[in-house]
Amino acid sequence: MKLLMLGSGTSTGVPRIGDDWGECDPSNPRNRRSRVSIIVENRMGQRILVDTSTDLRSQLLANKIAKVDAVFWTHDHADHCHGIDDLRVMRYDRSNPLPGYASRKTCEKLRRRFDYVFEGQYGYPTLMDLKEVEQSQMVAGFSFDHVEMPHGPVTSTGFRFEADGKVIVYATDFSEITPRMVSCFKGSDLLVVDCLRKRPHPTHAHLDMAIELARKTKAKRAVLTHLDKSMDYETIRAEVPKGILVGYDGLEIEL
């Protein structure tokens, strides 16, 4: 089983427009962060894409990804879904729509915002077959489970993917650790975890909270993601405990 981190940055990316690098060293390529999304891949080569970030086209080109077998969304915020149109080319050689999964609320919002993707328009075929996630499903060679996580006044869906005897958890955009999250994420081989900055934030995890989730779930390794311009790669790498990695665009981890 393999993780590919397509994007590791916050909603404005690093640098922000205006060449604003904040505290990040612009000479380190691992500080250049596009908006968050990941791919998980099993040994058969089946791939699940989580979130269609606003930088999706450039991410897929940079990592030579031409197709995926299913798409999951954590929630409907722009940085996590507004790259959805870049999935059109993946429909060209398919006889049926690409499978998509999200929570009920996220499904409703995606269908309203991107109706043409899920209904087809003007002679163009439906691009995606969107379904509400259920507990303990099998999709594209992966079994998965999910949990709703507090994300300020709304929620984001955390996912647990299992294949080839390994577990990858994706928990981005949360602001509180709940008992249900700990139960769902327990014992992962790799936890990809929200970590906006060092200081607490009203809608995102900060560094101490990210480390706390890794500790509570007994994750073998954790990777920090959704990093803002205050999180210089080398600085944070020198500060985090053993077993905690600082994510970056293009990071691959094989389990």
UniProtKB/TrEMBL annotation:
Protein name (Swiss-Prot/TrEMBL): MBL fold metallo-hydrolase
Pfam families xref list: Lactamase_B_2
PANTHER family: HYDROLASE C777.06C-RELATED (PTHR42663:SF6), HYDROLASE C777.06C-RELATED-RELATED (PTHR42663)
Gene3D superfamilies (UniProt xref): Ribonuclease Z/Hydroxyacylglutathione hydrolase-like (3.60.15.10)
Domain of life of the native organism: Bacteria
Organism: Qipengyuania psychrotolerans
CDD domains registered for this protein in UniProt: metallo-hydrolase-like_MBL-fold
Lineage, broadest ranks: Bacteria, Pseudomonadati, Pseudomonadota, Alphaproteobacteria, Sphingomonadales
Residue ranges occupied by any Metallo-beta-lactamase domain in the UniProt entry: 34-226
